[in-house]
Amino acid sequence: MRIGRREIAMDNNFVVTFARGFGSGGKEIASKLAHELGINCYENRILTLASQLSGLDEEVFKAVDEKVRTNGGFSNFLRGLPKARGYITRNEKFVSDDTLFEYQKKIIENLADTESCCIVGKCADYILRGRTNVVSIYVEAPRSFCVERTIEHMGVTEEVAAATIKNTDKFRADYYEYYTHGNYWTNPVNYDMTINSARVGIDDSVKLIKEYLKIKGFI
Q: Which of 34, 71, 94, 133 has the fewest CB atoms within 10 Å distance of its CB?
């Protein structure tokens, strides 16, 4: 049964974080789960908003921050930003930006305080660690499965797909290690559940996570 947005009490909000290997279908699983639960799914819009906020001078940011707190959170800002269409690849080397990360952290913490949602990437599992209203999922699959999906979704050759997966996963691993102070991205201890999407399937992965949310008493 679909759960509408208004049926989830704000004082009982929960967050499902997703880490995922490139091409594994993790983002699709997160989006489908959010759609079925009637909640928001956030990924690139967090980075977009954080980038905008980090470019403001201190006085302007204080005004924005006051507006955010007065109006209940960052949700309205995020929903006004466009979602990514297609895959977001990372073929460049990771370069740290501590200021930008702090803005992302602030947004993620505010979301966890104010609404039920899914958050993809951005070290959300680490940022929200220890919170009782958070479920963290890691989605991975064999390289052949990821290559096939990448070819299908990006329309590239097998060689380009393999290189994109390798480079993007390296970026994500370096990003996670830096901002978690030495933890590693694929460590299963970081997560409530690790799913092999090639074996479980996209739709059944959604069903599996929903069953776990029921066990936890969130839905």
A: 71
Instruction: Supply the mean pLDDT for the chain.
Output: 87
Among residues 41, 21, 23, 19, the alpha carbon closest in space to that of 31 is found at 41
Task: Quick: pLDDT tens for 31-41.
Answer: 999 999 999 99
Residue 123 sits in which domain range?
5-212
How many domains are there within the chain?
Answer: 1
Q: What is the pTM of this model?
A: 0.86
User: In three state form, how does the secondary structure of 56-103 look?
Assistant: CCHHHHHHHHHHHHHCCCCHHHHHCCCCCCCCCCCCCCCCCCHHHHHH
Task: Report, in angstroms and rounded to the nearest whole number, the Rg of the chain calculated over CA atoms.
Answer: 17
- Report the CATH number that the domain containing residue 149 is assigned in CATH: 3.40.50.300
H-run or E-run covering 50: helix 44-54
Q: Is 107 exposed, middle or buried (0-12, 13-18, 19+ CB in 10 A)?
A: buried
Is 24 inside any structural domain? yes
User: Distance between CA 58 and CA 66 in Å, rounded?
Assistant: 12
Whether 12 is in a domain gets the answer yes
